[in-house]
Amino acid sequence: MQYYALAFGFFVWMVVSYMSGRVEAWDSHLYWKFGYPALVIGSALMGYHKRGRAWRWGLWAGMGQALGLLLSRIMIGGGFSLAPMGFLVILLLTLPCMLFSMIGGKLGRR
Q1: Residue 75 CB partners (closer than 8 Å, separation 6+)
Q2: What is the DSSP letter of 80?
Q3: Distance, CA of 65 to chain centre
Q4: Residue 12 and residue 38 in contact, taking contact as beta carbons nearer than 8 Å
């Protein structure tokens, strides 16, 4: 299941990047309007269906975004000077995904 969550985060990042024409998905309003909410809701649904240690599905989805960020930087041949800051932002964006995964896991137990 972790590979599905990883692929989901990567897919959201790459689709928003492609559709918006931006290298980094979060530079687009589409990310904040559709991509990030889809990531949070998807994490909650994964937590609901796979209840044991549900927080990890949000973490894996965030790691998929980090992979998308890394690959998009490699594909354009861009520098990596701001990569540590980007990964820190992704970590912060992953925290709500983890929280909603936990909430989904608790709701799935009922």
Answers
A1: none
A2: -
A3: 4
A4: yes
